[in-house]
Amino acid sequence: MLTLFILGDVLGAGVYALAGTIAGRVGGAIWAPLLIALCFALLTAASYAELVTKYPRAGGAAVYAEKAFGKPLLSFLVGFSMVAAGVTSAAGLAVAFAGDYFQALVSWPAQWVCVGFLVIVALLNARGIKESLSANLVMTLIELSGLAMVIAAAVWFVSQGNGVPQRVFELDTNSPATAILAASLLAFYSFVGFETSANLAEEIKDVRRIYPRALFGALLIAGVVYMLVGVGAAMVLPVEQLKASQAPLMDVVSASGLGIPAPWFAVIALIAVANGALLTMIMASRLTFGMAREGLLPAVMGSVL
Length: 305
Description:
Blueprint: H1 2-10, H2 15-26, H3 31-54, H4 61-69, H5 72-97, H6 100-105, H7 110-127, H8 129-159, H9 176-189, H10 207-236, H11 239-244, H12 248-256, H13 262-293
Helix pairs in contact: 1-8, 1-10, 2-9, 3-9, 3-10, 4-5, 5-7, 5-13, 7-8, 7-13, 8-10, 8-12, 8-13, 10-12
Transmembrane segments: 29-52, 73-99, 105-125, 137-157, 177-194, 215-238, 258-284
Main location: membrane
Keywords: Cell membrane, Membrane, Transmembrane, Transmembrane helix
């Protein structure tokens, strides 16, 4: 379940626009920046694996700062910054949830959709970590099914004698190295999210054995899925079309002729957003709990309902 928690936080709604963004930088070789970004993510994950297995505490980054520097003010600022980032991210995801994909299904006032969305996610978190992780498990599997549809659509399209396989090696730039590096920095953002799992360390039995395996396993799965999606998208659609599209993966599925209904992608994108908000709020609540127990926040914030 930990692997799926991390995978659910890494995979997000942003992946549905990622192919077009990277194609705009490098051309058809979308997989190259993704591969480099995966290597960078694995290096960062190695640091987290070391810290989490040495200090398996709910306070996460705040605890690591305290152990490293022994300065409560600095530790508070680190932890508070993480909590603030989580709250801001959840708010942004609520706005995204109420946006075009939702309005395409149901025309409701966006501000009330945002409020209702956050209330539901908060209530789910309040029920407990077990219920939250169960919901995450279901939503992560749905997210993966959406990306599997894209890969299947690309395979079908190429198997019918269509597509341009050689396009995946094309670099549409005069400075390939610079373009790939710049695109890798963008692609790296698609791998972030695994750091929130550090705040669940206390819930993990045999953390020294399980956490590193789950962390690296989730990142490798995400990397392989991303690269397969990128390769498939490049073979099905021309680079110019990927660059111009607001929903490149939906266009890939539509162009394949596989007959997958477009509204399914709207639902899957909404689930990806909801899962991201759920996991972000889990992180913020666990971090707040851990900071209170470390004396960095009032003790009342360490209470469990």
